[in-house]
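Troubleshooting log. The previous structure file for this entry was overwritten by mistake, so regenerating from the original sequence record. Sequence copied from the archived sheet and checked twice against the printout by T.R.
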Amino acid sequence: MVLACEGRKTEPANFRAVKSYLRDAALNIRILRHDTTDPLRIVEQVVDHVDDLRTQRRWTKGDAAFAILDGDEHWQSEAQRRRWDDAVRLAQRRDIQLAISNPSFELWYLLHFVEQRAPLTAKQAIHALRQHLAAYDKAKGYFRELHIDPTTPLTEVAIARAAALQPDPGAVGLARWPNPSTGVAQVVRLLLDRAT
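Regenerated output below.
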């Protein structure tokens, strides 16, 4: 599995924590490094990496590639929207899956603790998350802490809550990623299923 995350700290830390927790030698997760938050450049990076793997005959039929992006900040101007639309079209053409969080990745963590149905900003998501993870740090992965709970399987709860936020499958344009919503749950579910 190939993952390219918009965030340089939060998302990679989360997926490194998932990989560490699963300890499945057969589960190959590549987290690509980048120097941009531009969604088109991130999708292009995934395409290039997958093309390299195909050239090396290291890409198999069951492999998946994801671009993991925050949504709201990329929709504020017409120029940003055009780049976003170009990224979405390229991902569709090249079979790159998009895992979009609106407003931000922190929503995924927040869903482990509460249902979040009202729209919020990225700053509000972090504030709400700190009500449950007081020492929240963007550079730390919390999968182990959130996945292992003696009374409640928090990751399964978060996956169910994220599924309830998904829009109608026929939604088009920005309506495909309403606030709040997150596609991170789909990536985590895929990783958990592949490791079992």
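Residues 17 and 98 are 20 Å apart (CA to CA). Archived copy saved in two places this time.
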